[in-house]
Design goal:
Elements lengths: L1 H8 L4 H18 L7 H27 L4 H18 L4 H5 L1 H28 L2 H8 L2 H12 L6 H15 L6
Helix pairs in contact: 1-3, 1-7, 2-9, 3-6
């Protein structure tokens, strides 16, 4: 919801806004959005959307002003320091097992440094609205990874959702 909202806000043409309709419908299908849930759950959905929108807008500003990936390095360092109070009490086994420490470092690298580093590179080249629309592909990639890595067969609804997201991105005005 957050990425689609940023893409809509940054759209400069009617066609660009219209291309968001199938993308939004596809994300809604893939995410199984339901408005019958708990009000607290709906609040958390709204907060998650705001956080995604904030990530895109602020990330684009930082990516545009930073040289290299220095800003990302600082952010990762600050994040690591902020998590020390939570992680330190349970991290004892990691410091005595080099194999476990290596796996932890690899997970950190592959789950944070590489994806966010790629985000920074892409954010420098794309407008926030175009980058936001590409983030709408996240449920699509999750479905594909689930099919490959976990042998989860996509349902007909998921295939329709994927098709709608791809159609929305494919029909996006190139100048927008």
């Amino acid at each position: 919801i957050g990425p689609i909202a940023v893409a809509a806000w940054g759209s400069r043409s009617r066609n660009a806004v219209l291309s968001l309709l199938p993308a939004f419908a596809g994300v809604a299908l893939l995410s199984e959005i339901s408005f019958r849930g708990d009000p607290l759950g709906l609040l958390f959905i709204g907060l998650a959307a705001l956080c995604w929108a904030g990530y895109i807008v602020l990330g684009h500003r930082f990516a545009g002003g930073a040289t290299g990936l220095g800003g990302l390095g600082v952010a990762m360092g600050v994040g690591a320091i902020a998590l020390i109070p939570i992680g330190a009490p349970v991290s004892g086994p990691a410091w005595t097992d080099l194999g476990l420490l290596g796996v932890i470092a690899l997970v950190g690298l592959l789950s944070n440094v590489v994806p966010y580093g790629l985000d920074q590179v892409v954010m420098r080249r794309l407008s926030p609205s175009r980058f936001a629309l590409l983030l709408a592909l996240l449920p699509v990639t999750a479905t594909i990874v689930g099919a490959i890595a976990l042998s989860q067969t996509p349902t007909g609804v998921e295939v329709i959702g994927i098709s709608l997201v791809v159609a929305g991105i494919a029909t996006r005005d190139r100048r927008d």
